[in-house]
Amino acid sequence: MKSWTASWHVDLLINRRAAGQHRTPAVMKGELLLLSSVVFLLRVACGCPEKCHCQPTLNSVDCSCRGLAEIPPDLPPQTLTLHLQDNQIHQLSASAFRSVPQLMTLNLGNNSLSILAPGAFHGLQHLRVLNLTQNSLHSLESGLFHSLPQLRELDVSSNNINHLPAALGERWENLTLFAVQQNQLQQLDRVLLESMSSLKLLFLKDNLWKCNCHLLGLKLWLEKFLYKGGVMDSVICASPDTWKGKDLLKIPHELYQPCLSPSADLESWPGQPLSPAQQAVLRPPKSHSVEEQDPSDCELKPKPRPANLRRALVTVIIAGVLCGILCLMMLVATIYGCTYAAITAHYREAPVAQTIEPAKTEEKELLDNPPA
């Protein structure tokens, strides 16, 4: 009824102007009041918030750059795209978007978000794109995104996130883009990435990656991800100093030390008291007590670099050539020695033969002519 009345008043104003009726200042003032009323009625009929711009044909609501401190309460229920970037929103309460259940794209970038209630996105069964970049988020609750089964793209880059729980992506089998660059992450659980079976684009750059034994699982998963055709930027180590500035994927596997199992088990019970049985299992040997352990034991320690296959092959070839030359020289020396010995022996036998022949002649003559 309201939209029909507003349309009738607009048609009336248009007909009056077309007919060229004489308008006094009082009439013009009345028309302006009527026109403002029409605009107000149209806004109410469409359900568009006062500080936002709505496009009914696209089911899009643009509330960006409006200085908003909270989510507008009167959003049109048929909204599919909602722009709330570049505002001053500090937190999201539970079911903050219950008035827009058909929402598919939500942009909350460049706000001051630091608190996201566990059910902040409850009811958004059709949401596909969620942008939370350039906020002040320090952590994300495990079940925060479990109510978003259709989520395709999640961008939480340029925040202060230092930890992502493994259960965060429990229902992320449809996720194709995941961006966490420019945060404070030191580790990333491989289990979280394995929950993203449809992932194609992954952005991890500019974090505080600690390239120790705990990051080996991430390295192995990334290699498999790239082998299957995935696209990613890079993981540059921030610590330890041995690998600072190096690309994680270019560090050989054999240089990783295995993690100590007690520390891994201790991390599996965060904030919970251990029973005597668990303490007995986790207690290290006396010779390797916790006090005596070096905290850097779990860090990546360089080992002697294995021999390069190409260099080893060149070394074998050079050694073979040198051995061949040496053998050839020895053969030549042997032949030369044998020849020299034979010639020497020949010249020594000639005088002896000449001495023996006269002796034999004299002996023959004595036998032929015996003495009288």
Which properties best describe this structure?
alpha/beta, nine-stranded mixed beta sheet, 7 helices, 9% strand
Q: Summed up, what is this model?
A:
The chain is α/β, with parallel strands linked by helices.
Written description of the protein model:
The chain is an alpha/beta fold. The protein has helices at residues 2-19, 25-46, 190-194, 216-227, 261-267, 276-282, 309-368; strands at 53-55, 60-62, 81-83, 91-92, 105-107, 115-116, 129-131, 153-155, 177-179, 201-203, 209-210, 231-232, 237-239. It has a 9-stranded mixed sheet with strand order 1-2-3-5-7-8-9-10-12, with no helix packed on it. The protein has a two-stranded parallel ribbon with strand order 4-6. Helix 3 links the parallel strand 9 (177-179) and strand 10 (201-203). Helix 1 (2-19) runs antiparallel to helix 2. The longest helix has 60 residues, at 309-368. The termini are far apart.
What is the first-to-last residue Cα distance? Answer: 179 Å
Q: Give average pLDDT, whole number.
A: 78
Secondary-structure-based class equals alpha/beta
What is the count of helical runs?
7
Show unreliable segments. 1-21, 37-45, 262-272, 274-301
Along the chain, the helix and strand elements come as: HHEEEEEEEEEHEEHEEHHH
Described by the principal axes of the CA atoms, the overall outline is: rod-shaped
Name the helicity range. 25-40%
Give me the Rg, rounded: 45 Å
The proportion of residues in beta strands is 5-15%
Question: Main sheet?
Answer: 9 strands, mixed
* Strand neighbour order, sheet with most strands: 1-2-3-5-7-8-9-10-12
Number of strands: 13
